[in-house]
Design a protein that fits this description.
single chain, 471 residues, alpha+beta, Four Helix Bundle (Hemerythrin (Met), subunit A), Glutathione S-transferase Yfyf (Class Pi), Chain A, domain 2, 3 domains, four-stranded mixed beta sheet
Length: 471
């Protein structure tokens, strides 16, 4: 197995996460790439993903497809008309799901392929590795227009090194396709990847040099940004000319976008908290923390029916997930709460006190995990026995252990509410609500400090404000 199929899958998954919450009408928004809509971008990506899959698994079908395409290219409307006819009117969320199903198949099939296998394509034959790398580049490049129109700064991963390599390898092609002689020596290229790792190519030179962000270099060679719109350091006539015409994709010579044309829309980009569509458990404690911090955020609530499709795209296959502009998604409720707490005065500054609060939060998760298997049981009698045993043992033990960690109160740290209190509040509210069958509401009656803490959180003005806002 080689790495590029998984890199392709991860890039697609990132865009799927971006688009899944959108309404169907939003897919009709025009981007700054030739006024293509989001529907147009997905249609283009989907058709060519299907085509590359056929080139790997069914060469005869690919050849027939290519023949039909060539017959239509001279007809009015060209490639876009062909793609629209091919997709059969599919749009919005239905198109998104169809694209997702296909890209997963492509990733699976290429993962099992010989990376050196030669595959037919619209241009020269390519290796399987080159084919799937080209699909990664296309997804990333066309995806830029989608992120831009939605006003979202993409959080790249080091998988874009594949695109940077394409940019390096097409130095000669760039000049040839423009009818120019290829310079005898390439500039030195020194790029900093998203992780901070430094990637270098060619002999060191102070007179012919390209240096800076790997993301910006990839944007230039994929023609999603003009070099003037980046902070790349470009030194020397060869480097300067290369960056003015760079083209890492096949086809006729293309003119890069003019300065300022391709850019992220100036829309309000808010953090997004993604969780199930109900006001409880891990998601609700994170929502309350965001509200207490005074953060205006998008409260993205996922219907249960949509979860199976989203689950593989999440960092750990679970929710909640906090999405911040320009950052990778942050998963796990404790990590989210501690992050928010540290930034907004809702978590201790002292390292030992912070660790003590985090221990209580971990203990709350331990109890949730002990209860979780009973949520999956289908036999009512089995559920009853398991819950009654938990109520008599683990729940009471857990309550006593937490009780010993609490002081004069009303909160863990005394008079100030912090994120650990929110997690304990959600657990206590759940156990004592009567909603958990076969768990008596008085299960924590032996824990007066813990019950006092939960009551104080529920009566906190900020918490009540959140409940009233959502109520």
């Amino acid at each position: 197995m080689f790495e590029q199929p998984n890199d392709f899958r991860e890039e697609c998954d990132a865009m799927y996460r971006l688009l899944k919450p959108l309404a169907d009408a939003d897919f009709g928004r025009a981007t700054r790439f030739k006024a293509w809509t989001i529907n147009d971008v997905l249609t283009h990506l989907h058709m060519w993903n299907w085509a590359v899959d056929q080139s790997l698994t069914n060469e005869a079908a690919f050849t027939a497809f290519l023949g039909g395409l060539r017959d239509k290219l001279g007809v009015q409307g060209g490639l876009r008309a062909f793609e629209n006819e091919w997709i059969g009117g599919l749009k919005g969320q239905a198109l998104l799901e169809t694209w997702r199903t296909q890209y997963q198949l492509v990733a699976d099939h290429f993962s099992a392929a010989d990376p050196k296998a030669r595959l037919k394509w619209a241009g020269p034959d390519m290796s399987a590795r080159s084919s799937i790398t080209a699909r990664l580049m296309e997804t990333w490049a066309h995806g830029q227009a989608v992120y831009d129109v939605l006003g979202v700064e993409r959080a790249d991963g080091d998988r874009i090194r594949n695109i940077a390599v394409l940019g390096i390898n097409t130095f000669g092609w760039t000049h040839t396709v423009h009818g120019e002689p290829v310079p005898p020596a390439m500039p030195h290229v020194r790029l900093t990847g998203p992780s901070g790792e430094v990637w270098t190519w060619n002999e060191p030179s102070a007179t012919e040099l390209i240096e800076g962000s790997a993301t910006e270099f990839c944007q230039v060679v994929a023609q999603t940004r003009n070099v003037a719109d980046t902070k790349l350091k470009v030194v020397g006539p060869v480097a300067t000319h290369w960056m003015s015409i760079a083209q890492c994709f096949a086809g006729p010579p293309e003119t890069p976008p003019a300065p300022g044309v391709r850019r992220r829309e100036a829309v309000s980009v808010k953090p997004r908290l993604v969780y199930f569509d109900f006001s409880g458990s891990r998601g609700e404690e994170c929502r309350i923390a965001l509200h207490l911090a005074g953060i205006d955020f998008d409260d993205v609530r996922i219907p249960r029916a949509d979860w199976p499709a989203l689950k593989p795209t999440m960092p750990f296959g679970s929710m909640p997930v906090l999405e911040l502009p320009g950052r990778p998604p942050l998963a796990q409720s404790n990590a989210i709460l501690v992050y928010l707490g540290r930034l907004h005065g809702l978590h201790p500054v002292d390292a030992f006190e912070a660790a003590r609060h985090e221990a209580l939060m971990c203990a709350a998760e331990d109890l949730r995990h002990a209860i979780l298997p009973t949520m999956r049981m289908t036999d009512p009698e089995q559920v009853r026995k398991a819950r009654e045993a938990l109520a008599a043992n683990e729940m009471k033990t857990w309550g006593s252990q937490v009780e010993r960690q609490l002081g004069a109160g009303p909160f863990v740290a005394g008079a100030k509410l912090q994120v650990a209190d929110l997690k304990l509040y959600m657990v206590v509210r759940w156990l004592t609500s009567g909603s958990l069958d076969h768990v008596p509401p008085e299960v924590l009656s032996h824990c007066p400090k813990l019950l006092r803490l939960a009551q104080a959180v529920g009566e906190h003005e900020g918490v009540k404000g959140w409940v009233a806002r959502k109520g």
